[in-house]
Amino acid sequence: MYDLAALGLALNLCRNLEERIKPIVLTMLTSASAVSLMLLAAHPVDVYGGLSGITAGLMAFAVLRLITNVDLASGFILLAGMIFKIYLERQGMSLSGVVPVWQAHCAGAAAGLIVSLTTSVPKFRIISGVTVGRTS
């Protein structure tokens, strides 16, 4: 239940920061693939059925969009929160009472950062090779 609520919040944040749906879907698919590959390679658990890796990917995507396009301070606060959460999970701590698979969260977040970096649209308009200012 927690995974579904967090996924919904992360999707909502992404939709508010990104008008195109394609990068968001790409983030979800890339995160799911990265989590699956990591779980195959690292074998931290026998069964994994959560959405938290995809949620971490969407949050990382949104954090980078916040930092680069909207609000630097809010982006860094969210980034610090994500890193701290994964650090606590690495230490075996969890607020939900479920044993976290921190490796899945790291893999999902890395995939989200990569997609955000590779699909970002510059917010500067260039006319005849000269940057004239932000367009938004």
What attributes does this structure have?
about 140 residues, mainly alpha, 5 helices, about 70% helix, globular
Beta-strand residue fraction: 5-15%
**Class inferred from helices and paired strands:** mainly alpha
Strand order of the largest sheet: 1-2
Number of strands: 2
Order of helices and strands: HHHHHEE
Total helices: the number is 5
Query: Which overall shape is indicated by the principal axes computed on the Cα atoms?
Result: globular
The main pleated sheet reads as:
2 strands, antiparallel
In terms of quaternary structure, the protein is: single chain
Question: What does this 3D model show about the protein?
Answer:
The chain is globular. A two-stranded antiparallel ribbon has the order 1-2. The protein has helices at 2-17, 22-42, 52-70, 72-90, 102-119, and strands spanning 124-127, 130-134. The model has no long low-confidence stretch (mean pLDDT 78). With 136 residues, the protein is mainly α. The protein is 68% helix and 7% strand. It starts with a helix and ends with a strand.
